Amino acid sequence: MQRWLKNITPARQALEKRWYLKPFTALVVDRGCWAFKRTRVINAFSLGLLIAFVPPTPLLPVHLTLCLVLGIVFRLNLPVLIATVFISNPLTWFPQVAGSIWLGAKLMGMNLMPMLHDMSHRNLRAQIHQLWEPLLLGALVLGVCAAAVGYLLGQCIWRGRVIYRLHRRRARSSVRGRALD
User: Which of 37, 47, 38 is nearest to 74 (CA)?
Assistant: First the structure.
């Protein structure tokens, strides 16, 4: 897995040569942000899932800005963090926002049905204003749950891969030992 991740990410030296990254070279090209160590990769994956549930904004690149700032501050693996955030894309925004609103409304004890029945293009702005609170609460809860599940899943996959490689290495060494006898 580590080799595969290294193959698909750009080389750190190649990024140092980019003119638009010159002012940020010391931050973005930090070795800690490109290390494929278990804790950095798994923490980046879970933080990326949390950031992916931030409601999308059409004018500001909130997801990528949060990725870069938090990834640099916590020295997480930036390629994994940015790739994970792209789970939230234009194809998944509607189910993500609808699920967040529904969960937030349920947690706040709101009834969405009267609001949905009265929705029209004339009073859409006022009704959207009422949906921000359940949207943010639902997105926070779903993001934290996704981050927790992603962390546990990442730990299990990483440990399973290590155990698999250890068994494979032991099997090869036992075959070589028998061949020498």
Answer: 47
Cα angle, residue 180 at apex, residues 177 and 181 outer, rounded to 5°: 90
Is there a contact between 92 and 56 (Cβ–Cβ < 8 Å)? Answer: no
Distance CA 19, CA 21 (A): 5
Tens of pLDDT, residues 132-167: 899 999 999 999 999 999 999 999 999 999 999 999
Residue pointed to by tokens 């981050």: 147
Query: How many angstroms separate the Cα of 4 from the Cα of each of 7, 30, 154, 167?
Result: 5, 21, 16, 20
Q: Name all contacts of 145-151 with Cβ < 8 Å and 24+ positions apart.
A: 146/49, 146/50, 146/52, 146/53, 147/46, 147/47, 147/49, 147/50, 148/46, 149/49, 150/45, 150/46, 150/48, 150/49, 150/84, 151/42, 151/43, 151/45, 151/46
HSE toward the beta carbon, residue 9, CA cutoff 13 A: 22
* Residues constituting the chain: 181
Quote the pTM value: 0.78
The residue type at 18: R
Query: Measuring CA to CA, which residue among 13, 11, 66, 21 is closest to residue 44?
Result: 66
